[in-house]
Specification:
It is a single chain. With 386 residues, the protein is an alpha/beta fold. It has a domain at 4-70 and 98-172 and 268-344: FAD/NAD(P)-binding domain. The protein has helices at 12-23, 48-56, 60-66, 88-95, 104-113, 161-166, 232-239, 247-252, 284-287, 296-313, 317-345, 352-364, 369-378; strands spanning 4-8, 27-32, 43-46, 68-69, 73-76, 82-85, 100-103, 120-122, 126-131, 138-142, 145-149, 151-154, 174-184, 195-199, 203-209, 215-222, 260-266, 275-276, 279-281. The strands form four sheets. It has a seven-stranded mixed beta sheet. Strands 8-2-1-12-19-18 form a six-stranded mixed beta sheet. Strands 3-7-4 form a three-stranded antiparallel beta sheet. The protein starts with a strand and ends in an 8-residue tail after the last helix. 46% of the residues are buried.
């Protein structure tokens, strides 16, 4: 009899974990609470570590074909001046791939296509997971039934219900102080670069160019939690009216009803473990981080490959989960701390003197400093699934 797993959550991390488990011969059921797969989200940048994980999962070539390499761009200030340039070609020489940009909806579809038919169950919400009398099984309770498996992978996001069950004393996610508005343009936009970030006082505006000429843009702002606008696009047009091109053009190419708005929450208090019993935490459920390094999805992809490799090579599920925790917790929590610090020194910085000092330091930094910073987090070697 083959091993079985229930993956809770059909996002990037959950789908990647399911692919990895299927590739090592496990029977997998992915339970997604959304009844309709609307693929909400704008765009995403994938660094070399994420691409390498996708290669191990067997979908790297498809993702590369659908993504646009980010060779040009960097970080600017609102008047258009450059703080730092990005050298995608140098990254490609060092890592074998540049950073790439892809719509989240496309990435989700490619991941789902790699799963066996019938593997994904939608419109079902997991309420609890608990060990059975037989210690080798886990029972997952749904609103209208239950499933049993040898393993449960909790990939149910930053607000993970299963994480709260496993670690009831953990404070859970906290508001980062920043909120993000984002969208994909309705039609192609003329862009001079593949990727840009612009830092103002307590604000960031960035774009990711796609293969079809459209672009994702995002605006990250210091703000109280829960603030929403009746016409978010109009608010952003006023907020960024004096910022450099192509920011006004990106906003003008966007439909008002396509703008997404989410407060950014993170796990500031690190979890003491990424596994308990036969339940593994993965992705945002384990290490939700701010987006300031572009590493959230990449870390989830690393989780998925590491978990599958451990299960393929260790003699027991318990030993595999212990190895998964040992390998993933230190690295992902380090990246989460680095992302938080990057936000504090980047988008969240608002005092004029501090902003001026930061900008001067970035302008004086050597040209390879940006590449070195990216290498620190993106240069990761995935384990084998064999």
């Amino acid at each position: 009899m083959s091993n079985s797993a229930v993956v809770v959550g059909g996002g990037i991390g959950g789908l990647a974990a399911a692919i990895g488990l299927c590739r090592i011969g496990w029977e997998v059921t992915v339970v997604e609470r959304s009844p309709v797969l609307a693929d909400a989200g704008a765009g995403i940048s994938l660094h070399a570590n994420g691409i390498r994980a996708l290669d191990v999962l067997g979908v790297g070539a498809e993702v590369r074909a659908a993504a646009r390499p980010q060779y040009t761009g960097g970080t600017r200030v609102p008047d258009g001046g450059w703080l730092a340039r990005m050298d995608g070609a140098a990254l490609e020489r060092e890592l074998g791939t540049p950073i790439v940009g892809i719509p989240r909806a496309v990435l989700h579809r490619l991941l789902r296509a790699a799963l066996p038919p019938g593997c994904l169950v939608t419109g079902a919400e997991v309420t609890t997971a608990e060990l059975r009398t037989d210690p080798g099984r886990v029972r997952v309770s749904l609103e209208d039934g239950a499933l049993e498996a040898d393993l449960v992978v909790a990939a149910d996001g930053v607000g993970s219900r299963l994480r709260a069950q496993l670690f009831p004393r953990h404070p859970g996610p906290v508001y980062s102080g920043s909120t993000v508005l984002r969208a994909i343009t309705e039609h192609p936009v003329e862009l001079a670069t593949d990727f840009e970030l612009t830092w103002g006082k307590g604000a960031e505006f960035g774009h990711i160019a796609f293969t079809d000429g459209r672009a994702e843009w995002h605006a990250v702002l210091n703000a109280p939690p829960g603030v929403r606008h009746e016409n978010a696009l109009a608010v952003l047009r006023r907020r960024f009216a004096a910022w450099h091109d192509p920011i006004p053009a990106l906003l003008d190419a966007t439909r008002p009803d396509s703008v997404l708005h989410h407060d950014i929450h993170e796990l500031v208090t690190p979890l003491p473990a990424f596994a308990a019993g036969r339940i593994a935490l993965l992705g945002d459920a384990a290490h939700a981080m701010t987006p300031h390094l572009g590493q959230g999805a990449c870390q989830a992809l690393e989780d998925a490959v590491t978990l599958a490799s451990a299960l393929a090579t260790e003699r027991t599920v318990g030993a595999a989960l212990a190895r998964y925790d040992t390998e993933r917790r230190p690295r992902s929590q380090y990246v989460a701390r680095a992302a938080r610090q990057a936000g504090r020194m980047g988008q969240q910085l608002s005092h004029p003197v501090a902003v001026a000092v930061r900008n001067t330091a970035l302008r004086l930094a050597p040209s390879h400093a940006t590449v070195r910073t990216i290498l620190r987090h993106a240069d990761w070697a995935p384990p084998s699934l064999i």
